Amino acid sequence: MEKRDKIYEGKAKILYKTDDPDKLIQYFKDDATAFNAAKKGTVVDKGVMNNKISTKIFEFLESEGIVTHYEKMLSDREMLIKKVSIVPVEVVVRNKAAGSLCRNLGVEEGKKLPISVLEFCYKRDDLNDPLMNECHIIALELATQEELDKIKEIALKINALMSKFFANLNLELIDFKLEFGRFKGGIILADEISPDTCRLWEIGTGKRLDKDRFRHDLGNVEEAYQEVLSRVSK
Ligand code: UDP
Fold it and tell me: Most buried residue among 4, 14, 55, 225 by CB atoms closer than 10 A?
């Protein structure tokens, strides 16, 4: 697989064309940002760890019937993916209250939510990725109702699968963010799933093993990502 022109560079990843028009290379960087890039830094080897963690999770989800953009891991920092057209909506699923839910709605961190909470944010850096509802998504023609229904169904299925997957590794899946893409007329899972995009708390100790260590300067960021990698690799 030949790596060609760079087509996109985001905060944590770069996308390159390949010699196959239907495939891209997703390259994972060590750069870390939080609070819509107000806080910036790097985490040593985060890209390597997130590539490997994402690979394990995509392989698990595929084995459970979820269609993803994942094709294969090419190197420490590179993943071969299907070229999709990204739906410009970030989908957040929450099981316990944390982060912006606590800030925005005054809920105590760690409160168990009696239902899984689905949230949507408009992928617009210039607007700071604002929260939006289903009517906004349809009215702005970001997705059709049929696509949105599919996205919600897949997101909830992924929540059930990943909650169990992480519980087996003694980790509680508090919340996470997904992105979806259009591929051959359908909707498939895209982007990455890693401690950058999930909150994971160790069961029993409540130890944060995710990007909150970077966001809130809790220290041992690299060690936390490494711990997640070693658990998903078992
Ligand atoms: N999240 C993400 N990218 C974003 C915003 C959120 O991956 O641009 C993830 C985040 O890591 C967490 C979940 O989505 O697992 C919910 O994030 P929240 O809105 O609480 O984020 P905060 O504002 O606290 O960073």
Answer: 225
